[in-house]
């Protein structure tokens, strides 16, 4: 394998590995929320806003991966540069994944709380916050 081919291998792998995340972002933006941890769009208060938030986070993850490709090309086998790009990639992607997990948890809490309140009021019990049925 030539030096040029070897220098382009890792950036090419990074470019290819971002494609599934981009596809997921597009699908979620189109309303396929069930792809994200089985979210039920019919139980969400505002499924369009949730889809926009989750697809934006997925797209940012893909962008972070895509930006690692020129970083690895710049590193070109230099161990300290490669380590720096890898650490930056890990921090960016993991931070965005935590934000994505928190957004999914918030969406799940939203529809679970709403369903629990609806079931309580249907049974005749009063809402503790408002005192209403």
Tally of DSSP helical segments: 3
Q: Output the helix-strand order.
A: HHH
Determine the structural class based on helices, strands and strand pairing.
mainly alpha
The number of distinct β-strands equals 0
Q: Into which percentage range does the β-strand content fall?
A: under 5%
Question: How would you portray this structure in words?
Answer:
Helix 1 (3-29) packs antiparallel against helix 2 (47-75) and helix 2 packs antiparallel against helix 3 (79-122). The chain has three helices and no strands. The termini are far apart. It has one domain (3-122). It is mainly α and 133 residues long.
Task: Please render the helix and strand layout as text.
Blueprint: H1 3-29, H2 47-75, H3 79-122
In short:
The protein has helices at residues 3-29, 47-75, 79-122. The chain has 133 residues and is mainly alpha-helical. The model has no long low-confidence stretch (mean pLDDT 86).
Descriptive tags:
133 residues, mainly alpha, 75% helix, elongated, transmembrane helix, transmembrane, membrane
């Amino acid at each position: 394998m030539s030096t040029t081919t070897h220098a382009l291998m890792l950036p090419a792998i990074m470019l290819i590995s971002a494609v599934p995340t981009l596809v997921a972002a597009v699908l979620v933006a189109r309303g396929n929320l069930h792809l994200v941890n089985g979210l039920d769009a019919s139980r969400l208060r505002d499924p369009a806003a949730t889809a926009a938030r989750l697809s934006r986070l997925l797209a940012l993850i893909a962008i972070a991966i895509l930006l690692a490709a020129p970083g690895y090309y710049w590193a070109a086998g230099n161990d300290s540069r490669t380590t720096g790009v890898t650490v930056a990639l890990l921090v960016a992607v993991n931070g965005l994944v935590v934000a994505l997990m928190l957004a999914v948890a918030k969406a799940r809490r939203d529809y679970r709380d709403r369903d629990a309140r609806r079931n309580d009021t249907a049974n005749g019990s009063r809402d503790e916050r408002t005192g209403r049925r």
